């Protein structure tokens, strides 16, 4: 069953926490500061080559890790941490998925911005109309766009730490889950429910036979 990409993006954004999650994140402000500190790098032509050499490999690794996280694991444990709560907050399972999706989204955007910067790195002559109209402001606008593009790159790298911490948190939960044998308890509960279902079915069949015998 296919979903509208717009709806799926809204679900990702909601599960991640939206702008509130971004602007209350220490990773965001650390990236702002780190990008400013690295001014000597991104203020020079050619900085995008670093992005284009790092990000594609990191993106491939991240997609592989995300696929493994979704496909591998204890289904009973996943069932425990999945499911929307009564107040409709995102489940822990979806929060981890949203963290990965945010990480991947930033990587893709950083690659696209690097390609745009590389494609439009053109030295304009002094008599060009843009230079005439904008003057020194053109260089300022270029540096602002350089900074924003490089910030997204740094934010993507820093978000790797958020993804690692999210996975470690789930690993901690799973360790606690196994230590308390929650999985075993769930299996016993499910087995008991299955036995109860079979017993009810037998009673229903017996009642049906008795009714047929009376007629």
Descriptive account of the structure:
There is one protein chain. By secondary structure, the chain is mainly alpha-helical. It has 2 domains: 5-180, no CATH class; 181-215. Helices cover 82% and strands 0% of the residues. It has 10 helices and no strands. The protein has helices at 5-16, 18-23, 26-37, 39-42, 48-71, 75-81, 92-119, 129-134, 136-179, 182-214. Helix 5 packs antiparallel against helix 7 (92-119). The two termini are 47 Å apart.
What's the layout of helices and strands?
Elements: H1 5-16, H2 18-23, H3 26-37, H4 39-42, H5 48-71, H6 75-81, H7 92-119, H8 129-134, H9 136-179, H10 182-214
Helix pairs in contact: 1-7, 3-9, 5-7, 7-9
C-alpha end-to-end distance: 47 Å
Which spans of ≥5 residues are poorly predicted at pLDDT below 50? none
Kindly provide the radius of gyration, computed on alpha-carbon positions and rounded to a whole number of angstroms.
27 Å
Kindly give the count of domains.
2
The pLDDT mean sits at 80
Order of helices and strands: HHHHHHHHHH
Contiguous helical run count: 10
User: What kind of sheet is the major sheet?
Assistant: none
Instruction: Tell me, briefly, the overall form.
Output: elongated
Count the strands?
0
Helix content: over 70%
Kindly name the structural category. Answer: mainly alpha
Strand content of the residues, in percent?
A: under 5%
């Amino acid at each position: 069953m296919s979903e509208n990409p717009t709806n799926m993006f809204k679900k990702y954004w909601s599960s991640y926490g939206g702008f509130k999650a971004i602007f209350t994140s220490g990773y965001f402000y650390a990236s702002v500061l780190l990008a400013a500190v690295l001014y000597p790098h991104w203020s020079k032509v050619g900085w995008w080559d670093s992005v284009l050499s790092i990000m594609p490999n990191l993106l491939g690794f991240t997609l592989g890790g995300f696929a493994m996280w979704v496909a591998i694991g204890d289904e009973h444990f996943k069932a425990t941490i999945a499911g929307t709560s009564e107040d409709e907050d995102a489940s822990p399972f979806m929060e981890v998925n949203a963290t990965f999706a945010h990480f991947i989204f930033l990587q893709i955007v950083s690659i696209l911005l690097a390609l745009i910067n590389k494609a439009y790195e053109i030295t304009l002559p002094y008599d060009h109309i843009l230079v005439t109209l904008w003057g020194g402001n053109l260089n300022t606008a270029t540096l602002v766009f350089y900074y924003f593009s490089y910030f997204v790159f740094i934010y993507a790298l820093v978000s790797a730490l958020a993804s690692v911490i999210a996975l470690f948190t789930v690993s901690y939960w799973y360790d606690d889950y196994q230590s308390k044998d929650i999985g075993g308890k769930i299996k016993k509960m499910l087995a008991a429910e299955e036995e109860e279902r079979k017993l009810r079915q037998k009673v229903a069949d017996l009642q049906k036979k008795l009714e047929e015998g009376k007629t």
